[in-house]
Each structure stands twice: as structure tokens, then as C-alpha cells.
Specification:
The chain is of the alpha+beta class. The protein has helices at 3-15, 17-20, 23-26, 33-55, 57-61, 63-66, 77-82, 91-106, 115-129, 169-176, 210-218, 225-232, 236-249, and strands spanning 152-156, 161-167, 188-197, 203-207, 252-256. The strands form two sheets. It has a three-stranded antiparallel sheet, covered by helices on one side. It has a two-stranded antiparallel sheet with strand order 1-5.
Length: 258
């Protein structure tokens, strides 16, 4: 085994709890298991602390009213129970940790009507950011852009989410991060938000439309532009404009048809 391969094994063991407990890792005898486990758990708490503080920042702003700080779940038994299954950076682990936060904060009795919608939004953001990512982009030739999109098949990117909310959250989110003495109000209004992630794990949120919702439901990587436009009830030109916006957000990619 090369030094680089050995380093990769150690890094994987620190990040991947099931692998750390496997005979494959333990049989190598590369480090004291108890010390590795303690350090891995320290890393896990630090890793998810940063993500909870970032993605649940609006709930943190409300903590003086709710009495529930999102990051406090990292010191509770629920998180300890997750540690043997956690794989840092995986979508499944992000979902499990985010669910702990949502359940914890949602138990607040504070009279904040939009708290449930807010927690769903923050949870979706944290989960969307997780998963494999592209660390180095391959050069793209000019002929591979939207100019040849008719030769490719639109497909919704895994992790893209449409949130149906009862409150117009984008109105209140900036206010929550500003100084306030009474909890900012959020107007009740049926709102649909699109949460998507680029291959480099940049998470974006945008207001959705009926056209966007239809395209995301039908974009399965098997329909041509003409077929997708007909199924969604759109003109091809309108579909191309919609797809361009979705590609920019990271919600849709194109697979090459046969």
C-alpha cells in the first residue's frame, strides 16, 4: 500500500462510521481503535455544528423566543445514537441530523405560526448541500452548451426539491437576521420554492412556477425536448427558457439520448 492509499484509508475511517467498525479496517491494525473513535466523534460533532449553524441560522435567530438552539442536538442522546451510522457528507446522514434539529426546535411552544414552514425550508437546504460533489470542473466546449440542448434529454438532478409552504418565507427571512424586538411576521400565502444544488454543492433557492413544477415532474432523462414540451403543455421556446434557468440553478442536467 502506498502512503497516499494509507492516508485515504485513515481519512475514510474517520469519516465513515460503518467502515470504521468493519473487519476490513480493524484488521489493518493501523491505529488504536478507541483513540480513532474518539477523534472521529469529535470530527462529526464539529462537521455538523458548522452545517447546523449555517443552514438553521433563522431558527437560531428565533432561539431567544423558542428557547431551543438548533445545535444543542449535538449534545443530546439522539445524536449519540446516530454516531455509529454517520458518514460525513452523505445525504442520508445529513437527513438524519437535520431531522433531529427539526424535531427538537418544533417542540417549542412559542407562538410563531410559520415555524413549521421555516424548519422544512432549513432542513431541505441542509440535505440538498450533502452528497457527492465535483471538486474540479472539466473544460466545456462551446458546442456543448444550450445551443445543442435539443440533442439531449433533460433530467431532474437528484436532491432537487419543491417545497409547498403556507407562508411567504422569502419575505421574512432577511428580517430574521436583522435586529428585532418582536418576532417578525410572515404573510400567509401559498408559496412554492425550488431548492437545488450545483455539482460543486452550491445550494440555491428560487420561487417556483407552474411551468417549473411541470418540467421537474416530467424530466426523467428519457423524453426529448419536444416530448417534454408537449407533456408539460409548453411551447418548445418557453421550455428552453425554463430549462436554462433550471440548469443554472443545478436542478436539471442533460443526458445524451441514443
Amino acid at each position: 500500500m502506498t502512503d497516499r492509499a494509507l492516508q485515504d484509508q485513515v481519512i475514510r475511517a474517520l469519516a465513515d462510521a460503518p467502515y470504521r467498525a468493519s473487519p476490513d479496517w480493524r484488521g489493518r491494525g493501523l491505529a488504536d481503535p478507541d483513540r480513532v473513535e474518539r477523534y472521529a466523534r469529535f470530527l462529526a460533532r464539529h462537521f455538523y455544528y458548522e452545517r447546523i449553524v449555517h443552514f438553521f441560522k433563522y431558527s437560531r435567530a428565533l432561539a431567544l423566543v423558542t428557547g431551543r438552539w438548533p445545535e444543542s442536538v449535538l449534545k443530546r442522546p439522539g445524536f449519540d445514537a446516530l454516531l455509529p451510522t454517520i458518514v460525513l457528507g452523505s445525504r442520508a446522514s445529513a437527513q438524519a441530523v437535520a431531522r433531529l434539529v427539526v424535531d427538537h426546535v418544533a417542540r417549542s411552544e412559542a407562538p410563531i405560526p410559520y415555524l413549521g414552514d421555516l424548519l422544512r425550508y432549513e432542513e431541505a437546504m441542509m440535505v440538498a448541500e450533502a452528497g457527492p460533489r465535483v471538486w474540479r470542473e472539466a473544460p466545456q466546449h462551446a458546442a456543448e452548451g444550450m445551443g445543442r440542448v435539443t440533442e439531449k434529454l433533460p433530467e431532474k438532478v437528484e436532491g432537487t426539491v419543491l417545497l409547498d409552504l403556507a407562508y411567504d418565507l422569502p419575505v421574512v427571512l432577511p428580517r430574521l437576521l436583522q435586529p428585532w424586538t418582536s418576532v417578525p411576521e410572515c404573510p400567509p400565502k401559498d408559496t412554492q420554492l425550488l431548492v437545488a444544488r450545483s455539482p460543486q454543492a452550491r445550494v440555491a433557492v428560487a420561487r417556483s412556477t407552474e411551468a417549473v413544477a411541470a418540467v421537474l415532474e416530467l424530466a426523467d432523462g428519457r423524453k426529448t425536448l419536444a416530448e417534454l414540451a408537449a407533456s408539460a403543455g409548453l411551447e418548445v421556446a418557453e421550455l428552453e427558457d425554463t430549462l436554462q434557468g433550471l440548469v443554472d440553478l443545478g436542478a436539471v442536467r442533460f443526458s445524451t439520448g441514443s
